[in-house]
């Protein structure tokens, strides 16, 4: 596949270009339409944020989807609710727009659910000038509003007509359904269809500067169990006597700490327990134990996460962890298992070329250039499932938010305008990009 907007065409652009200096007439219309629709966008944001849609509140997730479906249908999209009850979740809302054959196929990704279940005391939307506060206001209901604002502006400017777009809004991004293969099957199918994937979770901003997200790390889990022959503590360390499960656990975890660190890799230990015996809870999020100080402990358990930037780094780290686990202390044994959940969105030339295209738009709009955001500072996201399948992907296209996943989560409402304008112009230019 050859992209008409190849790397050479994305050369240096003057950062100081005046606003709208290089924008076409339709693009100038996009800028005006987004600005004119600001209060409408905020009103819709309030409406969907005020409806609780915690990942496990299935009726609430469906209610948000029902609010959004007419918005997409009014723009000429075919809307589909994809039931996910078999995976233990509510479902996904997909909206599809069929445009001109042969143009760039774009997959826009967001999510309907939040981390705030009905039991959370944080439920209310409030507005304080250009700041909005509420559960999921940035992550990721704000991202959905950016998508809609951009698409409305494209329609008004005439650039939506030829666009081939699928908007995938998952209902379980914050706590994916099980089995994961079923929960993400429709998203992955859309990724196989698409040329480009655009993720509309929050914009990365530091010290007043906007950044582009060309990479995100994986999110995987691991569980570790160590065993040792129990006996009287007075015999510990003697030849032929077990060192016990806790010393073996400590050896492994400390060797992880000393030998594994490298750039863009983290491996947290979330919890652990050791004794005679120690047992992992049925929820896999807790452990219990009993024991005595004069008994060599028989069992220890621990669980944590593993975050990497590339599949190769994942494989290499797993192999190194396994080798450490297998080098047992006398009289002990250990086993480790891995739960591969969210893959990484690795940095690629295609992703960087897409950011360069966005930076050309920034220059044309009189905005500062966006540098690459360090992937170690971003968590996993649904775009990672499709990033290996498309020619290019770019994340962080949602609004500028603060305090995600915590009471008081907020967004800068002014950021909705520039994010929707950027996204609409980018998609309009991608429609014109030749794909062979």
From TrEMBL:
<dbReference type="Pfam" id="PF07687">
    <property type="entry name" value="M20_dimer"/>
</dbReference>
<keyword id="KW-0479">Metal-binding</keyword>
<protein>
    <recommendedName>
        <fullName>Peptidase M20 dimerisation domain-containing protein</fullName>
    </recommendedName>
</protein>
<dbReference type="InterPro" id="IPR011650">
    <property type="entry name" value="Peptidase_M20_dimer"/>
</dbReference>
<keyword id="KW-0732">Signal</keyword>
<dbReference type="InterPro" id="IPR002933">
    <property type="entry name" value="Peptidase_M20"/>
</dbReference>
<keyword id="KW-0378">Hydrolase</keyword>
<dbReference type="InterPro" id="IPR050072">
    <property type="entry name" value="Peptidase_M20A"/>
</dbReference>
<dbReference type="InterPro" id="IPR036264">
    <property type="entry name" value="Bact_exopeptidase_dim_dom"/>
</dbReference>
<dbReference type="GO" id="GO:0016787">
    <property type="term" value="F:hydrolase activity"/>
</dbReference>
<feature type="signal peptide">
    <location>
        <begin position="1"/>
        <end position="21"/>
    </location>
</feature>
<dbReference type="Pfam" id="PF01546">
    <property type="entry name" value="Peptidase_M20"/>
</dbReference>
<feature type="domain" description="Peptidase M20 dimerisation">
    <location>
        <begin position="214"/>
        <end position="331"/>
    </location>
</feature>
<dbReference type="GO" id="GO:0046872">
    <property type="term" value="F:metal ion binding"/>
</dbReference>
